Amino acid sequence: MIDTHAHIHFPQFDEDREEVIKECEEKLDAVITVGCDLEDSKRAIEVANSSKKVYASVGIHPHEARNYSERDYERIVELAQSPKVVALGEMGLDFYRNLSPKERQYEVFHMQVEIAKELDLPVIIHTRNAAKEMADFIKKHFDGVRGVIHCFSGERELLESALDAGLFISYAGIVTYPKNRELRETLKYVPSSRLLIETDSPYLAPQPVRGRRNKPTYVAYTAMTVARELGLSFKDVDRITTVNAKRLFNLPLTGEEEKKRLVYQVGDKLYINLTSKCPCSCKFCFRGTEDYVLGYNLHLKREPIPEEYMYRIKNPGVYSEIVFCGYGEAFERYEALKKVAEWVKKFSKDTPIRVDTCGLGYLITENEKILEELKGLIDSFSISVNASNKEEYLRVVRPKFGERSWDSLVKFIKDAKELGFNVRVTAVDYPGFNRNEFEKFARELGVEYRIRPFKRFKKWEE
Ligand code: SF4
After folding, report:
1. Residues 42 and 118 in one domain
2. Which residues form the Radical SAM core domain (predicted)?
3. What separation in Å is there between the alpha carbon of 383 and the centre of ligand 1?
4. Are residues 250 and 264 in the same domain?
5. What confidence tens digit (pLDDT) does each residue in 189-226 have?
């Protein structure tokens, strides 16, 4: 687990810093101690230099912007080149306390963004009472800049422009506070590949330790809340946020974290990733933007043979469900799908098997007997339809088979239901999606449905 935002070089840790760092070394993968002005950033670097697991960020907080200007460009560049520095910031806009004039905040923020571009470092963004202004600033200046909105406090407009720009979103202890229900709600709109956690210690201790001085290891409380909210396990959130932090701040990934996953576990289910091919090109899809999903690198560059899956599944009986769902469409590898499913059923006939599919299996395989062939092997289908009529489907899902795709998809759903599979149709709640029509569509087909939150991986193009 990584605390992506702490200030352990602050005086609040003077008494017991060594102890705190020792605890971090034992329990965390890394901590980033974040500077707030140039003197403070030097202290951050000193503390980072004292431990293998502590890294520093250097920058000028908007409160301190009044003491700096574009003339300090070179001084920041120099500090930022210290080996343990992994980011620039915290920087940004704070119109709550307005300790620096607004124009100066903009000037110093903009300067640091330019340095980030020059040095190819990620930025750590602080924003308070300035969501709209920050959203506008990001739209205007963040082309090609990597970074994170630190201690995100829930503003939807800011979330959208940050995700459109490819930024990460970091949740601090405030997400654990009972009254912050709306903030917790936003978690479901953040792609798993952009989620981070932090403490902002010594401030903002999470609920169970609220009122105490915060410290990096308390980041685990935030992880627990995030897990509960997203229906994930603590281990899942640990993996997801650790890998994300390493990717953003260029910290070394372990071999396991880097490896392209053929199978991957989430909670007590095992997912099978057969291929990276898909005949669709949904407007909201993560493919082409992200390789990592739920903390796993799923972007396969080859098509492994079925035995490689069997070797990795090992004992299918230990999972509550086996799900064919990965970077691409399982029916693109129909023979492998069948073979692996047969093997699973042979060793564990009671383990349910689901296939998450785009529903174009008939067109992909040019075989309308596939569902009959899968009887007894597959228990359920989750079919991503994402539209309630042909016109909407062609516009949003953009299948390569064109016009005939819709009729084939509907036939697949009806056949699957008639043959006794459990069938669920799904849709993403993208801008302009008609929820009522989709519910009607599912009811008319007599199948269950699920509408998933729209996560912005990139800018939504109309
Ligand atoms: S069907 Fe799924 S994998 Fe294929 S493009 Fe659409 S969302 Fe992406």
Report:
1. yes
2. 264-462
3. 11
4. no
5. 999 999 999 999 999 999 999 999 999 999 999 999 99
